[in-house]
Specification:
The chain has 13 helices and nine strands. The strands form two sheets. Strands 4-5-6-7-8-9 form a six-stranded parallel beta sheet. The radius of gyration is 20 Å and the shape is globular.
Length: 368
């Protein structure tokens, strides 16, 4: 079992206590979901496969230097399972080594989210939620599942939220940023109403397949562009939800942006406020400046942590966004994993780090 990286971190003598808001468990294969699927849908997957909204011309959009959907090279267990698929390995390499008291699970696939076949999407999302409980949360209480929903069907998603909310271990509702339409559209509002009713935040994680180019000007030529465009998709969703009145209608709705950074937030707020002052007659449903909704309803995870060239700029950025709005995440076991021993160096005090590493998330998720 390759756990040398965390062992080196422990040898530095810095004991950590973390709440990690972005851990990616992974089925060993689709077979792991079979016990939680009706025979009809298992047979469908074996005969016809999944129905993503667009395929890839030449494999997966991750570089070959980072195989397995962008995983760390040292996160492959010796037993041949994929990174994130072996609970014992995850315990040794991550949970125990870094002092993770709680880890929020965000399964990215194969979960049915965004699948073109509506009924299959519902079946896979429900199966994924059962799998998170039985295979992960039951044997490892430190891990908290997210409610995976078939988000292109708002009513079916709301029904799944109502079903799962009865189990208090679910930490949030999970959406991806590349949906068929912008998330301010009314088709998604049943998701927000259900989440707010149960006091659950909406986690908006980068990614997804919507059948459209990842940039506003067409398909990317390089992985570099593809990777960066994730931030653009999040900015578009924040703009849509704000301008179309989601936060005015659901004032207690909490949104957590995962794996998008946050250095872009001030500039977006400034620009939206400027346009609102000149165009507010078009959006009379907005009774406050867009930045006020964003400050009140949206929080952010750290990974990938922004790294300004000038020392002190990151601290000033966090101050502008609000230190109480920043939650720590590693993105384990992906290649751009953020090691908590090396983030915020020289930027934040010990008290501020403690707030981001664990205090904010404990309050946000109402953890014991």
């Amino acid at each position: 079992m390759n756990v040398q990286a965390p062992l080196r971190a422990l040898q530095q003598g810095s004991a950590l206590t973390l709440v990690d808001c972005d851990i990616h468990p992974r089925p060993r294969s689709l077979e792991d979901l079979r016990p939680y699927m009706a025979q009809r849908w298992w047979d469908y997957t074996q005969t016809y496969g999944l129905r993503r909204r667009h395929g890839y011309a030449k494999g997966h959009p991750y570089p070959k230097s980072s195989p397995g959907d962008g995983m760390r090279l040292d996160a492959w267990p010796e037993n041949g399972l994929s990174p994130g698929a072996d609970l014992d390995f995850m315990r040794a390499q991550h949970l125990d080594a870094y002092g993770v008291t709680y880890g929020i699970m965000n399964p990215l696939g194969p979960s049915g989210q965004g699948d073109q076949n509506r009924e299959l999407s519902i079946a896979l999302a429900t199966a994924t939620n059962h799998w998170q409980l039985a295979d992960w949360a039951d044997p490892e209480p430190r891990l908290r599942p997210s409610i995976v929903v078939p988000y292109e069907d708002g009513e079916a998603s709301a029904a799944e939220i109502h079903r799962c909310a009865a189990d208090g271990r679910f930490a949030q509702v999970l959406l991806l940023s590349r949906t068929a339409e912008a998330l301010g559209r009314r088709r998604y509002w049943p998701i927000y109403e259900a989440a707010m009713r149960h006091g659950l935040p909406i986690a908006l994680h980068i990614g997804g397949t919507n059948g459209m180019p990842c940039t506003a000007s067409g398909w990317a030529s390089y992985y570099f562009e593809e990777h960066h465009s994730n931030v653009q998709s999040i900015e578009a969703m924040v703009t849509s939800m704000t301008v179309e009145g989601v936060f005015e209608t659901f004032p207690k709705l909490r949104i957590l942006l995962i794996e998008s950074g946050f250095a872009w937030v001030p500039a977006l707020c400034w620009r939206l406020d400027k346009h609102w002052r000149r165009l507010k007659s078009e959006v009379p449903h907005l009774r406050r400046a867009p930045s006020e909704y964003i400050r009140a309803n949206i929080s952010y995870t750290t990974q990938p942590i922004d790294e300004p060239e000038r020392r002190g700029d990151l601290a000033r950025l966090i101050e502008w966004v609000g230190i109480d709005r920043i939650l720590f995440a590693t993105d384990y076991p992906h290649w751009d994993f953020d090691d908590p021993h090396f983030v915020f160096r020289g930027e934040l005090s010990a008290a501020q780090k403690a707030q981001i590493f664990r205090g904010n998330a404990r309050a946000y998720y109402r953890l014991d």
